[in-house]
Amino acid sequence: MSNTSHLPGPFRGTARVPRLGRHATVRLLIALLAASATSALSAKTITVAAGDDLQRALDGVEFGDVVELEAGATFQGNFILRALERPRRRFTDEDWIRIRSTEHGKLPQRGDRVQPAHAKHMPKIVSANDRPALSADFGASRYHFLGLEFTASNQVCYNVILFGYDGLRNSSPATKMSQLPNHLVFDRCYIHGNPTGNIRRGIALNARNATVMDCYLSDFHEKGADSQAICAWNGSGPFKIVNNYLEAAGENVLFGGGKTTIPKVIPSDIEIRFNYFYKPRSWQKGHKDFAGTAWVVKNLLEFKNGRRAVIEGNIFENCWVHGQTGFAILFTPRTEPGIHPR
């Protein structure tokens, strides 16, 4: 209760929180249960077999749906996650849109990292040009990916997965927080480039509330430019990067490094735990295992812009002098010509 004697006229007196009667409470509970049941009943499972139109399936999803892609099938294209109209109620755990392999039950349990050998149980989503295999409309939310393979077959691809840009054109970055894709989970996925291509980045994770866990990200490298397994520069977080294999030539994981277009955004609340950061010696000129291409090699982990980060229980292996002086872990705060907040 709060005393309102200092307020004029009819506002004087003691304010009381109204209490629901027994019948009103029962009606409220029934309404909440009915809303939950309606959500569960309206959810559907969409099976996408080899040769089916994956984009059409993505265009038709609603919150709570499951999209199962045939294991072993290849879906070639530049696919876009849609932003759905938010329901007039609180989200529940049943409202995630789950996109998964038909053989997700044959993958390791949650908490165990997948390996390339598990690709036989996964559908493959592949870009055959320089555009992302997967991107999202502004504001797309609540997508959970389980047991999928994402890759690029072209010799040049800038981002295998791209968030934070207009999904239709992939050219217009988000300029306000509400445009960022949010509540995204990559769970036991295999995300990779190819051995000879200039594949710059695995995931451009410009998002709000994004998780990458138990995944395998490899073969990200480029001649003449930096490359990353995961990079975020125009997203707010929180970010959870847990128990992944992370392989890239430039910076295996990078926060910052690009101009922000959302005012005062800083990648924040970052959890990096139990990952394996690795650069193959086949990329090191002069090493006995050198494969012949001198990709630009820099750091294993770098922060140029970020705050509130926990880095715990990771393995960092192999870093040498090439594009920089060879520091494995680097903190270099930058304002990117005054764009980033100081």
Molecular structure report:
By secondary structure, the chain is mainly beta. The protein has one domain: Pectate Lyase C-like. 8% of the residues lie in helices and 34% in strands. It has 2 helices and 29 strands. The chain has helices spanning 22-42, 54-59, and strands at residues 2-3, 14-15, 45-48, 66-69, 74-76, 79-81, 97-101, 124-127, 134-136, 141-146, 149-152, 156-157, 161-163, 182-187, 190-192, 198-199, 201-205, 208-213, 216-220, 228-232, 239-242, 245-248, 251-255, 268-273, 276-278, 299-303, 307-312, 315-317, 329-331. 40% of the residues are buried.
Instruction: Give the strand line-up of the largest sheet.
Output: 3-4-7-10-14-18-21-24-27
Largest sheet: 9 strands, parallel
The CATH class is Mainly Beta
Look at the structure and give the mean pLDDT: 88
Beta content: 25-35%
The CATH topology is Pectate Lyase C-like
Total strands: 29
Using the 3D structure, state the CATH architecture.
Answer: 3 Solenoid
How large is the count of helical segments?
Answer: 2
- Helix fraction bin: under 10%
Spell out the key features of this protein:
eight-stranded parallel sheet; mainly beta; globular; nine-stranded parallel sheet; 342 residues; Pectate Lyase C-like
Helix and strand arrangement:
Elements: E1 2-3, E2 14-15, H1 22-42, E3 45-48, H2 54-59, E4 66-69, E5 74-76, E6 79-81, E7 97-101, E8 124-127, E9 134-136, E10 141-146, E11 149-152, E12 156-157, E13 161-163, E14 182-187, E15 190-192, E16 198-199, E17 201-205, E18 208-213, E19 216-220, E20 228-232, E21 239-242, E22 245-248, E23 251-255, E24 268-273, E25 276-278, E26 299-303, E27 307-312, E28 315-317, E29 329-331
Parallel strand pairs: 3-4, 4-7, 5-8, 6-9, 7-10, 8-11, 10-14, 11-15, 12-16, 13-17, 14-18, 15-19, 17-20, 18-21, 19-22, 20-23, 21-24, 22-25, 23-26, 24-27, 25-28, 26-29
Antiparallel strand pairs: 1-2
